[in-house]
Amino acid sequence: MSGWRSGYPLNVLRSLRFRLPALFLAGIVLAGLVASLIAIRLFQDYTRDRSLNQLRREAVGLAQLYADRAGDIPISAAALERATGDALYYVGLEIEFPGADSKHLRTLERLPASAVPSAVLQSDGLITFEFEPPREQRTFLAVATPLRIGQQTFGALVVAQPKAELRESWITLFERLALAFVVGVIVAGALAWYLSRRITKPVLALSRAADEVAQGRYDVAVPEVPGGGEISHLSDRFGQMATRLSETDERERNFLMSVSHELRTPLTAIRGHVEALREGVVEDPELRADSLDVIAAETGRLERLVGDVLDLAKLDAHRFTVLHEEVDMQRLIDQAYATFGEEARRRAIDYRQDIRSRPVIMSDGDRLLQVITNLLTNAFKWTPDGGRIGLELSSVKGSVSIAVEDTGPGIKPEEQERIFRPFWSRDGSGTGLGLTIARELAVALGGRIELKSHPGTGSRFELLLPGS
């Protein structure tokens, strides 16, 4: 139990259920921090520029006011400070306006020249700077403008504002952003958790189903995921994979049983005849010859079975060699047709061939004969005694067509693809390799096999090959 407890948190941290919302939330947090920093920086620049613009307007206006009121009613600096909300200072000469007893500029707090930059008294325009006034323990943001009365410049008027007021607005914005950020993280976390559950739940179900399939249990319950997204597509494909694996497993079992039966039957016959010959049970020369014929026939049957399995393995591994030679298709059809003539006569099957053209193509004659023979073997297998089988050769639009048509039971639509799969047989007899090899060989030769069939009306297999 202690080992489980120690390993469980680590497994949780490595799981998709944790990583997905964690990455999502980390992205939200990072984006929120970057956006907040950018917003604060932009707000700082904005408030500073707005304050400087306001100070500039006030400085120009107050300087003009002092110039216009020179020698008239005294101007109260305290009243102006209360009206503007900013601090006013004077830097320059000690002056008295002629013709009047009032000294307007004496109402302004006088700053020593050393308290401000030297450019304040030397410039003819507005000067922006920061300084710490006497008796103040804080920094002010200030704008200075020349103070002119008539044509004479007496000094500079300084309008200043504490920088702490700017920081207060920044702090207020920061507090609001922090609150919005925390709320956003909570909402994003809840959304990430919900989305993680929605995504990982079917993934975990698929993972459990994969474990079942890995252990050989293919009848697993695959979760249905609505929405048509990637997870839904994965679930559908996983279900198809499990179904095909189940079918493959069933075909392999059928193949093993079929091959075992197909091998055991000729081997049993061969062994019986060989033991009879060795023990001298069969002394009649005709019977001995018959036994040898049986042995030869069963040996050929074994050879064909082994050859089919090897051919299928080579085709699957793409290690199949195809020759390129001139092939007289009429001679090839005649050879294939003659192979089944005796069986057709014995079973009273109406067996005909129809030669509509005599093409010569570049292909592998032996493999073509194997394909046609497999198609005819399938036709004779399913056509009842007294039925009809036709073998047709023609040329259609630059292609060579070899068709095998029978009057067997036909093939259901849902089985028309299965019959070409290896190890699958409609009646459970044989290895089910004939049509599989025929189709794979047709593709290797650059052609294809088309099937037209309806239950109760027979089937038509057509091999289409490129012309010369």
DSSP, total strands = 12
Rounded mean pLDDT score: 79
- CATH topology label of the largest domain: Beta-Lactamase
CATH architecture of the largest domain: 2-Layer Sandwich
- Give the low-pLDDT segments: 1-8, 97-102
Strand content: 15-25%
Relative helix content: 40-55%
The assigned structural class equals alpha+beta
Apparent shape: rod-shaped
> How many alpha or pi helices?
11
Task: Give the SSE string.
Answer: HHHEEHEEEHHHEHHEEHEEHEE
Number of domains: 3
Intertermini distance? 75 Å
Write down the CATH class of the largest domain.
Alpha Beta
Spatial order of strands in the largest sheet:
2-1-5-4-3
Radius of gyration: 50 Å
- What does the main sheet amount to? 5 strands, mixed
Question: Can you offer a commentary on this structure?
Answer:
The protein has 468 residues and is α+β, with helices and mostly antiparallel strands. It folds into three domains: 9-214, Beta-Lactamase, CATH 3.30.450; 230-316, Signal transduction histidine kinase, dimerisation/phosphotransfer (DHp) domain (Helix Hairpins); 325-466, 2-Layer Sandwich (Heat Shock Protein 90). Helix content is 55%, strand content 17%. It contains eleven helices and twelve strands. The strands form three sheets. The protein has a five-stranded mixed β-sheet with strand order 2-1-5-4-3. A five-stranded mixed β-sheet has the order 7-9-10-12-11. β3 and β4 (140-149) form a beta hairpin. The longest helix has 53 residues, at 16-68. The chain is rod-shaped and about 155 Å long.
